[in-house]
Structures are given as C-alpha cells and as structure tokens.
Amino acid sequence: MIDFQLDDRSGVATYLQLAQQVRHALRLGLLEPGDKLPTAKEVVAKLAINPNTVLKAYRELEREGLLVVRQGSGTFVRTSLAPRDQAELVELQQRLTDWVAAARRAGLIDEDIEAMYRAVMRKDTHDTEELHDTRA
To answer: Which positions fall inside the HTH gntR-type domain (predicted)?
Structure first.
C-alpha cells in the first residue's frame, strides 16, 4: 500500500502531491493493477487534511484512467505506468540509490542533488530535441 507524505514547503497543492505520489508508485511498479488505495478516511487520519483533498486527487487519477472507484469497495489501481522490464528498472533504481549515497558522502545536500538532476534532465531533453531536429 502507498504511504503518502506531504511537503508543506513545496508550494504544490496537496491534492497534486497525492496524485503525483500515486503516479510515481505506478511508474516504479510499487502499485499494480488491482491494488487498493487507502480510503480518504485513512489518508485524512494520517495526514490531517480535508477529505475532499484526497477525493480530488483520486478523481483526477480516475479521469486519467489510472484508478477505478467501486462504490462500497474502494478505489483501485486500473493500469500500470511501470516499464515492461521490471528487472531493468530495479537495476537502474539501485544505481541511482548508489549515486545519491555517493553524492551525500561528497557533501551534497538534497537541493544540490536535485539541481544536478534537473540540469542533467534539461541537457538530455535539449540533446534529444537537437537529434530529432537534425533527422527532420
């Protein structure tokens, strides 16, 4: 089951944080089709938020086709976002975990690591776009 966490400093609306955490869990294979999500009441008890916030997140994910609500039974995962090669995903996640540990040993803090990640992602996106432009 997913364990929701909130970042009050992120500036991101609470319902969007919840929805994003479900998407991430789907991408990582932590949630699979048929898995039941916590009820709004359970999330409210853990996070001390308005039940409508949880319901709004779940409705958004339902509109995206990721969840299905079964009246009286709960909210369930409808589809996965995980890559087909789960073994490769596990290997990549371990390599990333090792890299983050090395970065912390080198004295980087979370903000430094995130800045590096975003810079690499931007460069990779830019390089990929340039490659497509030269092929066109």
So the answer is: 12-80
**Contact (Cβ atoms closer than 8 angstroms) between residue 51 and residue 44:** yes
Given a contact cutoff of 8 angstroms between Cβ atoms, the answer to whether 5 and 22 are in contact is: no
pLDDT in the model for residue 79: 92
Domains contained in the chain, number: 2
29 phi-psi bin (left φ>0, alpha ψ -120 to 50, beta other): left
**Does any domain span residue 66?**
yes
In sequence order, which ranges of the chain are alpha helices (DSSP H)?
14-27, 40-47, 51-63, 86-105, 110-135
Same-domain check for residues 57 and 109: no
- Both tokens assigned to 4: 């929701």
pLDDT at 132 over 80: no
In whole angstroms, what is the distance from residue 27 CA to residue 81 CA? 4
Q: What is the pLDDT of residue 78?
A: 96
